[in-house]
Amino acid sequence: RKSFFSYPFYFHQDTAWITGCDFLPQLKCVVAVTERTVIVWDYKSKGSQNNCFIIKPMENGLLCVCTVTMSDHLAKDNIVMGDDKGYVHLLTVTSDHLGLKQCKGKKESQLQVLDPKTFNIVKRKLHDDWVVKVKYISDLNCFGSCSSDSIHSFVLDDIKRLEDNLPVKEFSVPRGVNAFTYCAKAKVIVTGG
């Protein structure tokens, strides 16, 4: 039996568009990004207990997010995010950061604001325009990112390239790339612009 539910997030009277979301398989939480905020929501919380962690303020406006699915560490997830300045970020979140074990016994709703400086975040400028989509392709052990940038339109490379300054595999497409996907059966990447 399947069910669908939603939960409204309110940030001190501010309203913000959620620009992307994904599932964190190791921490069993939902991650979402807004303008300058990362939200990690423990959706399994029952009743009035709702554990939500707000990581802010991020340096640039976040536009898209995905989970890196290669982690075999049971208490850690890696998250890739794209922003409005052309940077791709790699954020590591652990259960220790979120204090999930400590929160389980509490009955009231938990909304905790966390400083980004307490997290391991690396970033690299890969595009000269907004990063409109990021995706981790586990079959290729690579991440992809795309932008409407005509020169640095699509990047496909190892996640380690976010942590160094080695050249990345990139493709130029006039007026950029707005979307992409990978077909494992055909071993083809399709882009749309």
Can you summarize this structure?
This protein is mainly β. About 5% of the residues lie in helices and about 45% in strands. Strand 5 (about 60-70) and strand 6 form a beta hairpin.
Principal-axes shape call: globular
Q: Order of helices and strands, N to C?
A: EEEEEEEHHEEEEEEEE
Structural class: mainly beta
How many domains make up the coordinates?
1
The level 1 CATH classification is: Mainly Beta
Radius of gyration: 17 Å
In CATH terms, the superfamily is YVTN repeat-like/Quinoprotein amine dehydrogenase
At CATH level 3, the topology is Methylamine Dehydrogenase, Chain H
Any low-confidence stretches, pLDDT <50, length ≥5?
A: 101-105
- How far apart the termini lie comes to 38 Å
| Helix fraction by DSSP (H/I, runs of at least 4) | under 10%
Count the beta strands.
15
Give the strand content. 35-45%
Task: Give the count of helical stretches.
Answer: 2
Please describe the biggest sheet, giving its number of strands, its sense, and whether it closes into a barrel: 5 strands, mixed
InterPro entries: WD-EF-hand_domain, WD40/YVTN_repeat-like_dom_sf, WD40_repeat_dom_sf
Keywords: Repeat
Protein name: WDR64 protein
Descriptive overview:
- The chain is mostly beta strands.
- The protein has one domain (20-192): YVTN repeat-like/Quinoprotein amine dehydrogenase (Methylamine Dehydrogenase, Chain H, 7 Propeller), CATH 2.130.10.
- The protein is built from 2 helices and 15 strands.
- The protein has helices at residues 95-98, 100-103, and strands at residues 20-24, 29-33, 38-42, 51-55, 62-68, 76-83, 87-94, 110-114, 120-125, 131-137, 142-147, 154-157, 170-171, 179-183, 188-192.
- Strands 1-2-3-4-8 form a 5-stranded mixed β-sheet, with no helix packed on it.
- The longest helix has 4 residues, at 95-98.
- The radius of gyration is 17 Å and the shape is globular.
- The termini are far apart.
- Mean pLDDT is 87; it is low at 101-105.
